[in-house]
């Protein structure tokens, strides 16, 4: 039963750091050295840290970093001697390997989806750049930030004009692609809001330049 619960928790997203643990009260003839709980806990902590550090999930930086993370995790698992693990460790090993393989497959799928959405999200690179500067703890240049925000408005207006159905050259997009673009836009809007709130009111020069184009 304990192993079954451990499997469900890991497959559900491996989101509880204490979800995989060995019980010292259960006697076993197998090796008692528990290797995988610490591996899984480190996996969870590292993944959560990367998701906070790279919040723009459709950005190339996020994709590349998460891809490297899962590849590194698979290499870490490959370095372990599977035959020397306890039965419960072997279960955790298989589940975590499956999780990493699945995430890499999902990233490859998302890359193709993002490429399809790009014409609908011309402002995404600018927001990603602002969030990158925030991640690197670079103080924003107020005037350049205001110009970037103003340029986003221009890009959005141009995209809206080009996508009007009556426009002769208006590109056609699959409804599913358009729906994904809407969800991505909402996420980018949240990213931009977090970036603006980081400096607005704390840096008077930033507020003076950026407040109006942000609105």
- Report helical residue fraction: 55-70%
Distance between the termini: 55 Å
Uncertain parts: 1-32
Helices and strands, in order, run as: HHHHHHHH
Counting helices, strands and paired strands, the structural category is mainly alpha
**Strand elements, count:** 0
Determine the oligomeric state from the structure: single chain
Q: Categorize the overall geometry.
A: flat
Descriptive account of the structure:
By secondary structure, this protein is an all-alpha fold. It has helices spanning 2-11, 36-53, 60-78, 87-117, 124-135, 142-162, 175-199, 204-214. The protein is built from 8 helices and no strands. The radius of gyration is 23 Å and the shape is flat. The N and C termini lie far apart (55 Å). Residues 1-32 have low confidence and may be disordered.
């Amino acid at each position: 039963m304990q192993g079954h619960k451990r499997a469900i928790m890991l497959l559900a997203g491996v989101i509880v750091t204490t979800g995989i643990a060995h019980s010292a009260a259960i006697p076993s003839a197998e090796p008692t050295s528990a290797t995988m709980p610490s591996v899984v806990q480190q996996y969870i902590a590292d993944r959560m840290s990367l998701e906070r550090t790279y919040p723009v999930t459709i950005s190339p930086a996020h994709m590349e970093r998460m891809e490297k993370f899962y590849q590194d995790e698979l290499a870490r698992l490959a370095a372990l001697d599977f035959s020397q693990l306890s039965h419960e460790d072997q279960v955790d090993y298989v589940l975590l390997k499956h999780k990493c393989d699945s995430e890499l497959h999902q990233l490859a799928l998302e890359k193709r989806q993002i490429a399809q959405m790009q014409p609908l999200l011309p402002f995404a690179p600018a927001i990603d750049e602002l969030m990158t500067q925030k991640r690197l703890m670079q103080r924003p240049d107020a005037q350049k930030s205001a110009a970037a925000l103003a340029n986003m408005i221009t890009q959005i207006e141009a995209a809206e004009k080009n996508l009007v159905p009556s426009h002769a050259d208006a590109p056609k997009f699959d409804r599913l692609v358009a729906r994904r673009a809407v969800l991505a836009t909402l996420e980018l809007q949240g990213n931009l809001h977090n970036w603006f709130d980081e400096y607005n009111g704390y840096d008077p020069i930033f507020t003076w330049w950026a407040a109006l184009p942000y609105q």
